[in-house]
Structure formats: structure tokens, C-alpha cells
Amino acid sequence: MNISNILSRKNRILLAELVRTDFKLRYQASALGYVWSVLNPLLLFTILYLVFDKFLGLGRGIEHYPVYLLTGIVLWRFFTEATNNGLKVIVSRGSLIRKINFPKYILVLSGTVSSLINLGINLLVVLVFILVNQVEISWGALMIIPLIVELYIFALALAFLLAAVNVKLRDVGYIWDVLLQAMFYAIPIIYPLQRVLNKHEHIGQALLFNPIAQVIQDVRYFVINPRDTVTIWSFDLPVLLKLVPFLVIAATVAFSVWYFRRNQGSFAENI
To answer: 215, exposed or middle or buried, with CB in 10 Å at 0-12, 13-18, 19+?
Structure first.
């Protein structure tokens, strides 16, 4: 996966074609088509908002909680979609791999880029919520750009790893589903992190060592509500501990690229 290959015109054309094909196939037999890319997070938001805010009161005391919740859901769905697309893409494109010689990483990139486009669409919906809820927008909101890049790099690295492992061990899909369900409740998506900190401060701090939680909280801080949003930078911790999410991402990228490159030569014969 050297830089000259990544930037080559042929690979860019192939990537664009794969992304277009992915979009067409995803909504081909659907009456609403691309609208589902927006409806899915909105429906999940509606259910979670009614149950956890209106009935259980988890959002009480959090200003602009509907936007707070929707932002977490949209970023989480991007991560799950990108990693799940990456996990399946090598196996699902087995016939293409056996017939044509091309860089295999293009397949993983296509799945994650498709998810990134969906994220862009869903962030427009978040913007509508921000305007309707009269959230005050500052220049700090531009920090969402490097934060989304950070989340994308982490999702892409995991997608490379999952794609390569799935060729040899098809059970990884079931294992990943269970891990995603566990992470959904371990990460402060539905509930405010402050509630955990009030009961177990060290556990609350440890949750932010997860890069996904760190990104979600940072986006909420810069875009929605800096007064009620706790981030890893809010704590008086050693600098090394505050850098844990970034070290996790760096280690994941290094291992995933090494593992993918080591195994990509045998993909065709193992699919």
C-alpha cells in the first residue's frame, strides 16, 4: 500500500466505481432508496430519546440534549457501518478478486468511503437539529473536521484488520456484532458521561480512553455544549494518559496495515 499506488489515476477510478456500485446495490430494492440513510439514525434517535429521556430522564440537566443524543448516534452509526462494510467486503467481492489483479485495499477503502458519504448526509440532519434547537455555533465547531478524520482513520484501520481476519475466520462477524453491542452501552452515547463520573470517577475517565468516546465527547464539546460536556482534556491527568486514544489509534493502524499486507496475497485462494 505505497503512496504512489494510492494516488494513481487507475486506482482512483476503481475506487469511485466501487463506491457508486455499493450505493446502487445497497438501496436497489428499496422503495425509499437513499432516504433510508437518513431515516435509520432518525428512527433510532426517536426511540432512544423517548425511552431514555422522556421516560427515564437521562437527559435531564443536559442543554440541547436532542442534538447531543443525535450527534452521538450519527457518529456511532458511521463507525459501525464503516467497520461492518470493511469486514464483509473482501469475502463478498471474491469473484472480482479471483478474476482481476488490483490492490485489495481499494475494496476496504470503498466500503469506508461509502460510509463517510452517509456520515456527511447525516451531519446535515444534525445541522438542521442544531438550527431548530437554536444551538449557538462558534468557530470552535470547525474542530469537527479533524475529529471526523480521527474517527475515520480508526474505523478504516479496524476495517482492514476485520476484512483480513474474516477471510480466514468467518466467525469474526458474529464476534464483532457482540463487541459493537457492548461498546454501544459502554460509550456515553445515550447517557451523559457526568452521571458515570458522579458515581465512579475513574471508570468515567477510563471510558474516554476509547477513541470513539473521545471523538464523540470532543465533537459535542466544540459543536453543541461546552458547559455540560466532559472530555478527556477536562481532567487533571498526566499528558501520556490524555494521549491514550491517539496511541490506541496509532497502534491499531500499524498492526492492521501489517496484518492486511501479510495476508492479502492469499485472499483469492481462501475465499
So the answer is: buried
Return d(Cα 142, Cα 253) in angstroms, integer.
25
Tens digit of each residue's pLDDT (9 = 90 or more) over 98-112: 878 788 889 999 889
* Contact in structure between 214 and 80 (CB atoms under 8 Å): no
Q: In sequence order, what are the residues at sequence separation of 6 or more whose Cβ sits closer than 8 angstroms to the Cβ of residue 194?
A: 204, 228, 230
Q: Write down the mean pLDDT value for the chain.
A: 86
Query: What HEC string does 22-52 produce?
Result: HHHHHCCCCCCHHHHHHHHHHHHHHHHHHHH
Q: For residues 232 and 80, what is the distance between their CA atoms, to the nearest angstrom? A: 23
For residues 18 and 104, the answer to whether their CB atoms sit within 8 Å is: no
Query: What are the residues whose beta carbons fall under 8 Å from the beta carbon of 108, sequence distance 6 or more?
Result: 86, 89, 90, 156, 159, 160, 163, 260
